[in-house]
Design a protein that fits this description.
alpha+beta, five-stranded antiparallel sheet, two-stranded antiparallel ribbon, 50s Ribosomal Protein L5, Chain: A, 7 strands
Length: 150
């Protein structure tokens, strides 16, 4: 699927934290993100979520991801938060409720092409019993809702 997105990632860096460890947490989940350090905050930008989608598939949390993305969707994109400690371990753990004491990683996705719902379907396809609905689709193949054969 061809898509056009902008991803903004923000992670607070508290006085008790090592900036490099927070940067590692972001890079472990978003390896293509370009990081900059602002006062007390790491800000990253990316234009792909393919590696993130791979983690969702590997962890078999596509249903959870779809629910989180849809619950936080707007006409122009969606947002979500991740637990910083889990991200440091390379694990996606969505944050719900109040942020952790050290703060969560906040992710804002702006989708220019295709429509938001189609991109969510690509990022975290529908599942049945935890597996993508199309059994002929092999892991690593990207979902294209407009293709006759994917």
């Amino acid at each position: 699927m061809i898509y056009s997105i902008d991803v903004r990632i923000e992670a607070p860096v508290n006085d008790t934290e090592v900036t490099d460890r927070v940067a590692d947490a972001v890079h472990n989940v978003f390896p293509e993100a370009n990081l900059t350090h602002e006062s007390g905050l790491l800000v990253a930008e990316a234009h792909t979520l393919d590696p993130f989608s791979d983690v969702l598939h590997e962890q078999e949390i596509l249903d959870t991801a779809r629910r989180v993305f849809r619950d936080n969707a707007t006409e122009t994109g969606f947002s979500f938060r991740l637990k910083k400690q889990a991200a440091y371990e390379g694990v996606v753990n969505f944050a719900v409720g109040n942020p952790d004491e050290l703060g969560d990683i906040a992710v804002e996705v702006t989708v220019r092409e295709p429509e938001v719902e189609a991109f969510i379907d690509y990022l975290a396809p529908e599942t049945e019993d935890g597996a993508p609905v199309d059994p002929d689709r092999e892991y690593g193949d990207r979902y294209d809702p407009d293709a006759d054969d994917y």
